[in-house]
Design brief:
alpha/beta, seven-stranded mixed sheet, 2 domains, Quinone Oxidoreductase, Chain A, domain 1, globular
Length: 324
């Protein structure tokens, strides 16, 4: 089968002779039509931080996990052959033509849909839904909020916070073109952190009061340092971006003195939210599918990874998706 092989940092190769997986009892084999890149792929792709210590090469298809396709073989009665699905690969090797999923990692898509590729955004939406479960509504409704990072994950947070009743949603990013998308997705204010000190800009916007809730959706040391300074006293910091380092600098003196509530969340448990995320998109309860751009043929995978790694040089590149 076709798969992506990470040969070393910043070097991938397309292969067509990877051994196909075989579904076990209670599993389904999915032939993928679309697989999206994720921000969590970038640390491994770049060999950044802790990812520079792994053993190369990893297995074919490594770390892909946002897959749309149809079931072609099933060993679970409730998931018949031909069912269109959002699928989570059991082994996280989803940059491949075929993947194996358990029922817990599957969500049904409509039998007829104009744009199946757009449904890849349901996977990151599910991770945000799971994250938001940790935040109390009184920390959002009629409150000031900020989101550091306006890549796909940050944009989802921006839209959901606005739709949940936040009085203000301040979107922050160093990539200027992303801020137009942030406004499109519901940000009330935007800050270009490539041109201005984000902390000072938030102070100016809020009359020095800062925000009730700040979400960090990048995972880089500098973005986390910025986000940690934005909650007001007794405010909340939600660290969502996956860190690239096992240990890194953090303003603990300020955070403890500020009595900031610190939340974190990540992990495959988001699969529990897959069907809800799919249904929200299909039913029009969220409007996120425009971010599934660009869509590139499988043969341009190497280009897609470079685009994702360098967003400032590739305007409009958000939830990059490969078409198999």
């Amino acid at each position: 089968m076709k798969a992506i092989l990470f040969e070393q940092p910043r070097k991938i190769r397309l292969i067509d002779d990877a051994p196909p997986p075989e579904p076990g009892e209670g599993e389904a084999l999915v032939r993928c039509d679309f697989v999206a890149l994720c921000g969590t792929n970038m640390g491994p792709y770049l060999g950044d931080g802790r990812w520079g210590q792994i053993e190369w090469p990893p297995p074919p298809g490594w770390l892909g996990h946002e897959n749309i396709g149809r079931i072609v073989e099933s060993r679970c009665d409730e998931w018949p052959v031909g069912t269109p699905v959002l699928a989570h690969p059991e082994d996280y090797n989803g940059f491949a033509e075929l993947i194996v999923s358990k029922p817990a990692g599957l969500a049904r898509l409509p039998d007829r849909l104009d744009d199946y590729a757009a449904m890849v955004v349901a996977q990151p939406l599910a991770t945000v839904l799971r994250a938001m479960e940790r935040v109390h509504l009184e920390e959002i409704i009629n409150r000031r909020t900020a989101v550091v990072g306006q890549g796909p994950m940050g944009l989802i947070f921006t839209q959901l916070l606005g739709r949940m009743g936040a009085a203000e949603v301040i979107a922050i990013d160093t990539v200027a073109w992303r801020l137009d998308w942030a406004k499109r997705f519901g940000a009330t204010h935007v800050i270009d952190a490539g041109k201005a000190d984000a902390v000072e800009a938030v102070k100016e916007l809020t009359g020095g009061e800062l925000v009730d809730l700040c979400v960090e959706a990048v995972g880089h040391p500098d973005s986390l340092m910025t986000a940690a300074m934005l909650p007001k006293r007794l405010g909340t910091l939600f660290v969502f971006g996956v860190p690239h380092h096992d240990t890194q600098e953090f303003p603990w003196w300020h955070t403890v003195g500020n009595e900031t509530k610190v939340l974190t969340r990540m992990g495959p448990e988001c699969m529990e939210y897959f069907q809800t995320a799919v249904d929200m998109i299909v039913q029009g309860r969220v409007d996120l599918t425009d971010m599934v751009t660009p869509r590139l043929p499988w043969e341009r995978a190497a280009e897609a990874f470079e685009m994702y790694a360098n967003p400032a040089d590739h305007e409009g590149s958000l939830k990059l998706t490969l078409v198999l």
